[in-house]
């Protein structure tokens, strides 16, 4: 991808407090993410995963805190300046205005840059969208629409990527083809997941949220414990090491005392 990297400059989140959707974290968020690493956000419905991602992207205001990327404070940049550094893929649920897949992906082009048509075709191919390039968005399946939104974020060509439920609607081929492809690129990525095993497979660090608080943050081994999963999701989980060497969670049933927040 086109821009110079600084491998020693991590993403730094300091004292971030959410301000939107009535969510107030008991303790403001602090974390570090080295260049190229993935952070997965996990937590039950409505706990604030999307709110956190949109706050980091500057789409929602933060009450306090800093988001620094390569020594730049992203939350204070204009939307246009921020788009040079950070792209977010959100779930598409609005009208499409008759635009085609190719036109929607091209909207990811940063305003100041000339449209690179060859790169646009590469991103379409990367997301297995070439045969669908001319199709109006209204005529796509859920998974095809999801890949289109992913392609739009990738076409923005930033080194920092935020993905809201990237696995949504994707069949297992497209899921692993896309996530595997992304993991081979030097993109620092924060993504929300509902599939805990998928998050453990693709992420270096996990952030486990409950409504209004961060329960745990660390490696998948540190975060995916039986206690944490009972506390946050109310499930009785068996934790093992999967054949690929990643933590694997098997839900045995609901936790004996369903003590979720
Ligand atoms: N536009 C909005 N206005 C007011 N409240 C909102 C808005 N969007 C979301 N919320 C509320 O904010 C809370 C957090 O929502 P959010 O979408 O961040 O949760 P989530 O963890 O991503 O959930 P899910 O797993 O269901 O996608 C929820 O209680 C939700 O009802």
From TrEMBL:
PROSITE patterns recorded for this chain?
A: ABC_TRANSPORTER_2
> Locate the ABC transporter domain: which residues?
11-236
Keywords recorded for this protein, A-Z: ATP-binding, Nucleotide-binding
Keyword rRNA-binding attributed: no
InterPro entries, sorted: AAA+_ATPase (IPR003593), ABC_transporter-like_ATP-bd (IPR003439), P-loop_NTPase (IPR027417)
Record keyword Cell membrane present: no
| Superkingdom to which the source organism belongs | Bacteria
- UniProt GO molecular function: ATP binding; ATP hydrolysis activity
First and last residue of the signal peptide: none
Q: What is this protein called?
A: ABC transporter ATP-binding protein
Native source organism of the sequence: Ferrimonas aestuarii
